[in-house]
Amino acid sequence: MKTKYVLKRLLIAIPTFFGITILAYIISSMAPGSPLDMLLADPRMTAEEIARRETALGLDQPVIVQYFTWLGQFLQGNLGFSYRTGRGVLTMIGERLGPTLLLTCSSLVLSLAVALPLGILAAKKPYSVWDYSASGLSFLTAATPNFFVGLIFIYWFVVKLGILPMGGMYDTTGVRTYAMLARHMIMPTVVLSFQQMGSWIRFTRSSMLEVLGEDYIRTAKSKGLRWNTVVYRHGLRNALIPVVTEIGMSIPALVGGAVVTEQIFNWPGIGSLMVQSINARDYPVIMGITVMVAAVVLVGNLLVDLTYGLLDPRISYK
To answer: How many CA atoms lie within 13 A of 185 on its CB side?
Structure first.
């Protein structure tokens, strides 16, 4: 049944995926400017050469024709070539994918490592000092934009204290070590985790409070079980279901936050490549990144649905 459910979800995801690509292509084409702007800035470029380049790139065709041309190449496994660099889109994305995955996965682990314990602790001792402290931290982190936190971190830890590097993945010395990478990852990882951390603390607390008020929790307590056993063995598993839903819904926000964070800290990932491509109206690269992000979000949502069955065996897949 689970295999049938996965296939059904994949069939539903296909039109969603192509709908995302259509919207992304149309919105990109509606933005001011053209991929030919760089050529127009060159005084040596003649009008005939610009017209030839426009025809060669297919930019003289209507937008819908350009989209179906791109779609035909995509279905053949070809994402095209960058207007800006002339390199293959797949190669450019492959070079930037590793740093982005490293940053987003690290921030995801950090957010969970902080949010789950604080949310559980706040629910175990409601209206205590721990609860008020966790709630205050969650409101602070959820309400503070990533770019603002990043600028504050740079000011204090780089300008004032000088204990952390400004940005990038490694120093400019040419030497690359894991310790150096870890130092460069501290600020972008914490900044990217900031808003997710706050919302997940609140969700974990509210979900745990709701579960701890259920009849089966009172029954477990009446049997003389230790409170920690009741909370972690009987309550946490059921409380995690809405938390997992919130985590799945946060995946697009996490990817969007990576764009801002990578720009602030000069992190060589997909986000900074996306900003460069948008500024240059580099449609093939924009579409290539859109395809990758859409696939990650759709697969992430599918994994969240499958996780429900692991947390609650009563959930069936049809």
So the answer is: 17
Any domain includes 192: yes
Largest separation between any pair of C-alpha atoms in the chain: 87
Summarize pLDDT for 10-69 with one digit per residue, the tens: 788 888 888 888 888 888 888 777 777 765 666 677 777 778 877 877 778 888 888 888
Tell me what the mean pLDDT of segment 278-298 comes to: 86
The total of structural domains in the chain comes to 1
In the numeric block, which tokens belong to residue 74? 């995509």
Residue 161 has pLDDT above 70, yes or no: yes
Kindly state whether residue 178 falls inside one of the protein's structural domains: yes
Residue 146 lies in a domain: yes
Tracing tokens 């070539």 back to the chain, one arrives at: 81
Residue 60 CB-half CA count within 13 A: 7
Q: What angle do CA 221, 227, 231 make, to 5 degrees?
A: 95
- 117 Cβ contact partners less than 8 Å away, ≥ 6 residues apart: none
Residue 223 token pair: 């049997």
Domain holding 209: CATH number? 1.10.3720.10
Burial bucket for residue 157 (CB in 10 Å: 0-12, 13-18, 19+): middle
Q: Can you give the pLDDT at residue 259?
A: 83
| Burial (0-12, 13-18, 19+ Cβ within 10 Å), 225 | middle
Chain position carrying tokens 């240059």? 280
Task: Please state, as a whole number, how many other Cβ atoms lie within 10 Å of the Cβ of residue 121.
Answer: 19
User: For residue 292, what are the domain limits?
Assistant: 89-311
